[in-house]
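Materials and Methods. Structural model of ABC transporter substrate-binding protein. The 397-residue sequence of ABC transporter substrate-binding protein from Reinekea marina was retrieved and submitted for structure prediction as follows.
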Amino acid sequence: MNKKLILSTAIAAASLMGTAQAEVKIGFLGGFTGPIESLTPPIFAGAKLAVAQINVEGGLFSSGEILEMPSADTTCVDASAASNGADRLINSDGVIAIVGALCSGSTIAASNNVAVPAGVPMISPASTSPAVTGLDDNDLVFRTAPSDAYQGEMLAKLLEAKGIDDIAITYVNNDYGKGLADALVGAFNGNVAANEAHEDGKADYRAELGSLASTGAETLVVLAYADGSGQTILRQAYESGDFGRFVGGDGMVGQNLIDAVGADVLDGMIATKPGIPEIAGQSVYADAMTSLGQDPSAVFAGQAYDAAFILALAIESKGSTDTEGLSEAIRMVSTAPGEVILPGEWAKAKAALAAGKDINYEGASGNHEFDANGDVPGMIVEMVVENGAFVQKSILK
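The predicted structure was written out as tokens:
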């Protein structure tokens, strides 16, 4: 109970702290409004938990400087908003690294237009588009979630294992939707009767659904967002009665989707999302999140915790707020060999670094051995709607 009170107080203090009071700042760039607005709060909570633990356990450097996390909104779908948010975080708030963005297009815009030119590293917990892998980013863009090149492959295997061999796909027309759709189509051995883009933010998708239904496919795969087009499409697809089964990707895995469309309508819906392996760090993180009344299994929340903790470890290992060499430090603190650091073990990490030891952070969502592109392998899990909630069923291999 005392630990819960301390962490809750630290998180509240960080939220109220004026930027002038902070010594070190890591920004959070997320979709607080728009098609993932119900998914963003628990992701932000995961990142803020890491910040609170760091401050409770001595802060940064020998002087115990406070870590602050100012945030900015990308809307998820507006490249200008993403760039403007990154610009404010870096040039007004003075952050030296960013957790985010969440939506792939936002990460691409913010990094290309602002963060990379400024030399500021970003670790996205949720940008899964394969397009992120190929960014010309001067080794400044990382992610703690696996690429959709892998998720698409696992979704294809899941559908085939369930005997589904004829699908129609509708995807939101952006980097995320197209990347996941392309990966699914490339890996699926059955018949893709249709693979059509749609624009987010419309009130009526009946024309698009009519085109998809004309193929005769019984299974509709919706690769979009729970608070945006995905929600509207599922509702109108049910009303049309043209499809007998619904399938989604990680952007659709949210309780708000079920609440909005109806548990009875979505009962049995299949989806995939990045999962959290059964490693030591997972249970430590889960206990801390649960103690604060947060859902540790919320999509991308564990990945956000890890992104924030890794950035802080990298800054601590450098011993300064200079961004030069920070990307190298990110790799150093998260790669074996080294003294293993689990979530919440900030004091242990500080002591090891002060003693000149190498450390290896093994996180809440995986052991993040970043490859040359800043990607991690990760894992994908099967989700099914049962009794009014998304329930994890299996790890996909």
